[in-house]
Amino acid sequence: MEMRYHSTRSKDVQVFSKEAILTGIAPDGGLFVSDQIGSAKLDLPTICANDYHANARLVLGSLLPDYTADEIASCVAGAYGDQWDTTAITPTTKLGNDWLLELYHGPTCAFKDVALQMLPRLMSVARKTAGNGRNVMILTATSGDTGKAALDGFADVEGTGVTVFYPDGKVSDVQRLQMVTQRGANVAVAGIRGNFDDAQTEVKHIFADERVAERLLANNTVLSSANSINVGRLVPQVTYYFDAYAQLVRAGVVSLDEKVDFCVPTGNFGDVLAGYYAKVLGLPVGTLIVASNANNVLTDFISTGTYDRRRPFHKTISPSMDILVSSNLERLLYYLSEGDCELVSSYMADLSNKGSYTVSKAILERLRDTFSCGFANDDATRQTILRTWDDLGILIDTHTAVGKAVLDARAHEGRQRICLATASPYKFSADVLCALGRQIEGLDGFACMDELERITQTSAPAQLSGLRSAAELHPNVCDRDKMSAFVEDACARIFA
Ligand SMILES: *Cc1c(COP(=O)(O)O)cnc(C)c1O
Predict the structure, then answer these.
(1) What is the distance in A from the centroid of ligand 1 to the CA of 366?
(2) Does 228 contact ligand 1 (Cβ within 6 A)?
(3) Cβ of 148 below 6 Å from ligand 1
(4) CA 362 to chain CA centroid, nearest Å
(5) What's the pTM value of the predicted model, to 2 decimals?
(6) Residue 437 and residue 390: Cα distance in Å, rounded?
(7) Which of 117, 267, 317, 371 is deepest in the core (most CB within 10 A)?
């Protein structure tokens, strides 16, 4: 069967995955979805015998079938090469009675690398084989980790540029330095005065602005997205759910077809949605546990069926999850409504006009068949970091700790449970150190890194400790209403 993608809000325009990846977001503001996902299940015994590369080829081949097998194979080989510090790519290790899926072994030390080492390669191939030779400017709003991962993935990739906006003062020292020290002739970085939701909302406006699009097209340039609304971001993340399962089967921990639970520290709902796709593709998933920080809009949604973004925004120690509008939820609503574009459109209209929507009883029931939820505030998160270090000798970051806190608060349902570890603890050294009971007052990000190394006898990843001597190349901070002009200037400079 020929696989096509269309918007969550309308089935009128049907495109191949290459076009969906090049475009990023559907023209009507919806997200690209396919009705054919899961019509063929992946073969579990094969998955369990495969290494990471082979599993990535299987997953990508199944969800992006207009790419040839050779194209996929070369993307996989390039994306998961020696820029990773382990050939396992995403190793699954012991976490007390549970398991830790370590997703931070890539070049920028957060799970975003799994997708963002892949997306530029998928985009390059799409550009050459389906893209009219146009330049692609990647436009990204980041709560901290996506920005660097996108910059690293796209730097100096031919025919592409990348512009990143981060909320000034709302990312960690190390996160900011990772971005503002980025090299490459095709990169642009700016802080904005506002929070992540402000940045994301304005990026969506820029995408939807036809006058901007016209002016860029006159310079042979189109905009695309590296946010997890891009299909090319979502699909690579499906691989590690299968691969983690394969690792547990090979270790004799679960038997073939036995269900496992995943607990996912969640912000924009991209990571946990990939787990849902894995389930649809045949992975034996019990429960997907959506773990939130104090910005617990998803906890309330899964508990009550009402999504309400009208609430105070909390700046927490897990900033990559400080999100009140979880974009990828729209894709789940599409599937749970059994493909009812009109209903999804009405929810999204309510969200933007009234600030909230309430799903039907049927959708809520289907949601609860697979998803469960919980949240942890900063205190609980710190206590979990301390406990995990003291009891297990395992150092986890502030985002992973939200997941672990939520897992620890749940009754065990008898299934093996895998907690996704989404960042290296050294990306958030100050808050991790503070959780371990140390004074951090007066210490900068690097002093915290040194102290964390000293007291835990572990080592910071070289790509983070090396930042202390890197030059800051991108000093820009702008207001929200200047973002659009910043993007156009970057396009003019990069694609001159
Ligand atoms: C992005 C991010 C998350 C949240 O992932 P979503 O796909 O947005 O739900 C969690 N932890 C870390 C470290 C992240 O960078």
Answers:
(1) 24
(2) yes
(3) no
(4) 28
(5) 0.94
(6) 12
(7) 267
Residue 108 has phi, psi (to 5 degrees) of -115, 10
Model pLDDT for residues 342-371, shown as the tens digit of each residue: 999 999 999 999 999 999 999 999 999 999
| Per-residue model confidence (pLDDT) at position 131 | 77
What's the full length of the chain, in residues? 496
Q: Domains for the chain: give ranges and CATH numbers.
A: 5-84+111-231+474-494 (3.40.50.1100), 92-105+258-426 (3.40.50.1100)
Which of 62, 72, 9 is CA-nearest to residue 37? Answer: 62
Q: Confirm if 396 and 285 have CB atoms less than 8 A apart.
A: no
Q: What is the pLDDT of residue 224?
A: 87
Closest CA to 102 of 250, 197, 243, 1: 243
What angle, rounded to 10 degrees, do the helices at 378-392 and 398-408 form?
A: 90
321 CA from centroid of ligand 1 (Å): 6
- Confirm if 487 and 197 have CB atoms less than 8 A apart: no
- Distance from C-alpha of 254 to C-alpha of 108, rounded to nearest angstrom: 31
How far is the centre of ligand 1, averaged over its atoms, from the C-alpha of 354 (Å)?
27
Protein residue with its CA nearest to atom 15 in ligand 1: 145
Residue 434 alpha carbon to ligand 1 centre in Å: 21
Q: Strand 221-225 and strand 135-141: pairing? A: parallel
Residue holding tokens 């985002």? 399
Contact criterion met (CB below 8 Å) for 114 and 422:
no
pLDDT score for 229: 87
CA–CA dist 68, 52 (Å, integer): 19
Residue 401 beta carbon below 6 angstroms from any ligand 1 atom: no
User: What is the tens place of the pLDDT at every residue in 61-105?
Assistant: 999 999 999 999 999 999 999 999 999 999 999 999 999 999 999
For residues 313-332, b (16+ Cβ closer than 10 Å) or e, as one string?
A: beebbbbbbbbbbbbbbbbb
> Measured in angstroms, how far is the CA atom of residue 114 from the centroid of ligand 1?
12
> Parallel, antiparallel, or unpaired: how do β-strands 10-15 and 92-95 relate?
unpaired
pLDDT score of 412: 87
